[in-house]
From TrEMBL, chain A:
SMART domains named in the record: Transket_pyr
Domain Transketolase-like pyrimidine-binding: 73-248
EC top class named in words: oxidoreductase
Gene Ontology terms: biological process: branched-chain amino acid catabolic process; generation of precursor metabolites and energy; response to nutrient
Originating species: Geranomyces variabilis
GO molecular function, one term: branched-chain 2-oxo acid dehydrogenase activity
Protein name, UniProt field: 3-methyl-2-oxobutanoate dehydrogenase (2-methylpropanoyl-transferring)
Pfam families in alphabetical order: Transket_pyr (PF02779), Transketolase_C (PF02780)
Automatic annotation (TrEMBL), chain B:
Catalytic activity: N(6)-[(R)-lipoyl]-L-lysyl-[protein] + 3-methyl-2-oxobutanoate + H(+) = N(6)-[(R)-S(8)-2-methylpropanoyldihydrolipoyl]-L-lysyl-[protein] + CO2
Organism name: Geranomyces variabilis
Major localization class: mitochondrion
Necessary cofactors: thiamine diphosphate
Occurrences of domain Dehydrogenase E1 component (ranges): 116-414
Name used for this protein in its record: 2-oxoisovalerate dehydrogenase subunit alpha
Upper classification of the organism: Eukaryota, Fungi, Fungi incertae sedis, Chytridiomycota, Chytridiomycota incertae sedis
Protein's job: The branched-chain alpha-keto dehydrogenase complex catalyzes the overall conversion of alpha-keto acids to acyl-CoA and CO(2). It contains multiple copies of three enzymatic components: branched-chain alpha-keto acid decarboxylase (E1), lipoamide acyltransferase (E2) and lipoamide dehydrogenase (E3).
CDD domains per UniProt: TPP_E1_PDC_ADC_BCADC (cd02000)
Gene Ontology CC: mitochondrial matrix
UniProt xrefs under Pfam families: E1_dh (PF00676)
Similarity field: Belongs to the BCKDHA family.
Gene Ontology BP term (one): branched-chain amino acid catabolic process
Length: 395, 456
């Protein structure tokens, strides 16, 4: 049915290819969609990836787990491990969502159904509002519900269940009831060829909702620790996993059970001239941008912060940093208008007004739907981040 | 809570329920205006309707409640489950023989050949574009293998004025309506000739000229929209209906249920066409629904419903033709469940061998292919020969390859199209500023923002 490499069809297609395009590589071809793994080549070489156990346990948040061994894994494997630990340590935990049974379209639930049985790891019918409401109901009677939305772009049928139900469950009942056992995972952010509906970053919609937490991990270690923390947190938590990192991000990850704190940002790189804040895969773009800037302006010192939790967000860490540097740049993929950068900018100008040397800069997606063929012109690229940081420095 | 209290206060209040959306959960402050509104409605036209609606129908034994006026009282307690499965309508057997001659549609040879040639063309296009994605030349693709008869059988029964809402696996319907190979290729290549201006992933076709609304990836969202379009067609007195395609997976979305219900209550001429192909990505129907398939839902919403052999192009044709007649002349929605089998992977992002044995697919192809079935029918009628088959396949393949190569050479859409169409009318300040900033960046950093593949 499908053409093999030796088939006449394969050859015919080769012949039909214009000669100028024959040797074009994905990375350099502007119009050609790159394969997922090649879209963000800087992730593989990032200094933020921990390649040895020593490196891993130098992190003060992980010191307590230093007796664990580590294992090399990518982000989807780390997510899988977190759910494995949750299912093993909590017999009321269940994992469900569309296509979850066979391992999920991003392989995050692979092997879990075989290990824990189809009553604890299962496919749901194709209904986001249904499966989120189902999760709320399980959590409301004391279970631990770990729900998967196949893409963050498809969470919106469940918006009512999340915003009007999950987020208000505790408050409206006078704390008689809650659905804190609910965690909703969803892949988010750009991937190089996702177009309108496989690229979005809807964190700001949920950040406008008192009563839930929102987390965006940047790496396998972070994904495992933050997801486990989210699952065990007594509140409903949305975990947005940058899908480009599922395979591209690989590092040594502590085995077994550990958590990382929700609501805490992390300073990835100390600096004194300007504070740069990002989350998810945008951090690797920022890492590249900072490297470009350091080459251009020798001696420049940039502080990079991973926000990690969008709600509640760690104002203290950012405020402290901005009071040191006097400058703030925020970068995110979601459209700039009412993006979460707006909230950070407003709060920081309230708290650090006299200390600010320049207006807070936001480098973000434009105010248009995520456009397939114009993606590289849409995203807050390293070039745009460099420009934004320079604008803050030269004001 | 408050709204519920008002509603149950009296039958009149219940019938004079405010329109959805006006007052969903009124606050106490809104109570007086709600009461005023109710009074207005009761004293207005709705009062007359209310009187007739609360008057119970007379036949003996019928329940008095307005919720199910066709129901009779019984003193036997019984729970209903597993009603008899709805039959599956077919015209052709697996060998392409007409089973009951009375059911053979009276279609001229040229229509039958158009249906068949479209199937072959769709099949050939799928083969080439699937492979093109594998070579990295387009970013994504979805084939229609195994579902060709649902496309051509339904498309042949529609008129050009009928409005089509697809899910994403209905390329054949669009092809039958006249979308050219060139137009398909341009969309999949996101080039400057794509009607969608390169903004959406491949297979998200749309054509205003052909009354085919642009595909959107989220599942099921098109269903209530289809009901609305159908109601609008009815209001404007058009001799046309809407057909809305979706899979059995999408039928689990809330939008499906909302759509059937609202189409039913508004008596909208909408054909809901379910392609039940057995899988929603990896999810088999046993995890998708219980009960008698999707067809049983239609009865629940009070709709005319038919289940049809989706691999039998003639049965699909007959069903859609009659459904269309009912929808328009009787002002009612119709649900059609076409049973078929997804032979291909869900998409190029999917490898179905991870969740179904390869032999399941190969056995299925051997057992029943909609194209082979239709070909046998045509051959038996003397409309088609093996030689014609070979010649057509060869020519259509070379035509597709030609258009494919041509589309690849067409540049990507101009950057002029990046900030347009967000809103109609004058661009607001933020978009103006952002577009200017983007253009300045492209000018300043040509090595980073390479535009050579984009139309100037």
């Amino acid at each position: 049915m499908f053409a093999r490499k030796s088939s006449p069809l394969f050859r015919a297609l080769r012949l039909a290819r214009p000669s100028t395009l024959r040797y074009r590589s994905y990375a350099s071809a502007s119009g050609t969609p790159p394969p997922a793994e090649g879209f963000m080549p800087s992730v593989a070489t990032s200094a933020f990836m921990n390649n040895t156990a020593d490196q891993v346990f130098r992190n003060p948040e992980l010191k307590a787990f230093a007796s664990s061994s580590t294992k090399k894994m990518n982000l989807f494997q780390a997510v899988n491990e977190a759910m494995d630990v949750a299912l093993a340590t909590d017999d009321k935990a269940v994992v469900f969502g569309e296509d979850v049974g066979f391992g999920g379209v991003f392989r995050c639930t692979m092997g879990l159904q075989e290990k824990y049985g189809a009553s604890r790891v299962f496919n749901t019918p194709l209904t986001e509002q249904g499966l989120v409401g189902f999760g709320i109901g399980m959590a409301a009677v004391g279970h631990t519900a770990i729900a998967e939305i196949q893409f963050a772009d498809y969470v919106f049928p469940a918006f009512d269940q999340i915003v009007n139900e999950a987020a208000k469950y505790r408050y409206r009942s006078g704390n008689q009831f809650d659905c804190g056992g609910l965690t909703i995972r969803m892949p988010c952010m750009a991937v190089g060829h996702g177009g309108h509906y496989h690229s979005q970053s809807p964190e700001a919609y949920f950040a406008h909702t008192p009563g839930i937490k929102v987390v965006v991990p940047r790496s396998p270690i972070q994904a495992k620790g933050l997801l486990l923390a989210a699952i065990r947190d007594p509140n409903p938590v949305i975990v947005m996993e940058p899908k480009i990192l599922y395979r591209a991000a690989v590092e040594q990850v502590p085995e077994g059970d550990y958590t990382l704190p929700l609501g805490k940002a992390e300073v990835l790189k100390q600096g004194k001239d300007v504070t740069v804040v990002g989350w998810g895969s945008q951090l690797y773009v920022l890492e590249t941008a900072i490297a470009m800037l350091e080459k251009e302006i020798p001696g420049i010192s940039v502080e990079l912060i991973d926000l990690r939790s969008v709600l509640p967000w760690d104002v203290e860490t950012i405020e402290k940093s901005v009071n040191k540097t006097g400058r703030l740049v925020i970068a995110h993929e979601a459209p700039v208008t009412s993006g979460f950068g707006a909230e950070i900018a407003a709060t920081i100008q309230e708290r650090c007004f006299l200390r600010l040397e320049a207006p807070v800069q936001r480098v973000a997606g434009w105010d248009i739907p995520f456009p397939l063929i114009f993606e590289k012109f849409y995203v807050p690229s390293a070039i745009r981040c460099v420009k934004g940081i320079k604008k803050a420095l030269n004001y | 809570m408050f709204a519920a209290a008002i509603r149950s206060a009296s039958p009149l209040a219940r019938l004079a329920r405010p329109a959805a959306g006006l007052v969903r959960t009124p606050t106490l402050a809104a109570a007086s205006s709600l009461q005023r509104m109710l009074q207005r409605q009761v004293s207005g036209t709705s009062a007359a309707q209310a009187v007739s609606a609360v008057t119970p129908p007379t036949p003996e034994g019928r329940v008095l409640f307005p919720g199910a006026t066709g129901s009779h009282y019984t003193e036997k307690m019984s729970f209903n489950r597993d009603p008899k499965a709805m039959s599956t309508y077919r015209v052709l057997d697996l060998e392409g023989n007409v089973i009951d001659p009375a059911q053979e549609p009276d279609l001229p040879k040229e229509v039958l050949l158009k249906m068949y040639k479209s199937m072959l063309t769709l099949n050939a296009m799928d083969l080439i574009l699937y492979e093109a994605q594998r070579q990295g030349r387009i970013s994504f693709y979805m084939t229609s293998y195994g579902e060709e008869a649902t496309h051509m059988g339904s498309a042949a029964a529609l008129k050009n004025d009928d409005v089509v809402y697809g899910q994403y696996r209905e390329a054949g319907v669009l092809m039958y309506r006249g979308f050219t190979i060139e137009q398909f290729m341009n969309q999949c290549y996101s080039n400057a000739m794509d009607f969608g201006k390169g903004r959406q992933m491949p297979v998200h076709y749309g054509s205003r000229e052909l009354n085919f609304q642009t595909i959107s990836s989220p599942l099921g969202t098109q269903l209530p929209q289809a009901a609305g379009s159908a109601y609008a067609l009815k209001l404007s007195g058009k001799d046309a209906c809407v057909i809305c395609y979706f899979g059995e997976g999408a039928a689990s979305e809330g939008d499906f249920h909302a759509a059937l219900n609202i189409a039913s209550t508004t008596e909208s001429p909408c054909l809901f066409f379910c392609r039940n192909n057995g899988y929603a990505i990896s999810t088999p129907v046993k995890d998708q629904y219980r009960g008698d398939g999707i067809a049983s839902r239609g009865q629940g919403y009070g709709m005319d419903t038919i289940r049809v052999d989706g691999n039998d192009a003639l049965a699909v044709y007959n069903a859609v033709k009659e459904a269309r007649r009912r929808a328009i002349s009787e002002s009612r929605p119709v649900l059609i469940e076409a049973l078929t089998y997804r032979v291909g992977h869900h998409s190029t992002s999917d490898d179905s061998s991870a969740y179904r044995p390869k032999t399941e697919v190969s056995d299925w192809i051997k057992q029943d292919s909609p194209i082979a079935r239709f070909r046998k029918y045509l051959e038996k009628k003397g409309h088609w020969t093996a030689d014609e088959e070979a010649a057509f396949k060869k020519s259509v393949r070379s035509q597709i390859l030609k258009e494919f190569a041509a589309a690849e050479k067409i540049p990507k859409p101009s950057l002029d199209h990046m900030f347009t169409d967000v809103l109609a009318g004058e661009q607001p300040w933020n978009l103006k500023e952002q577009e200017a900033e983007m253009r300045a960046l492209v000018k300043e950093f040509p090595q980073h923002y390479d535009t050579k593949d984009y139309q100037k």
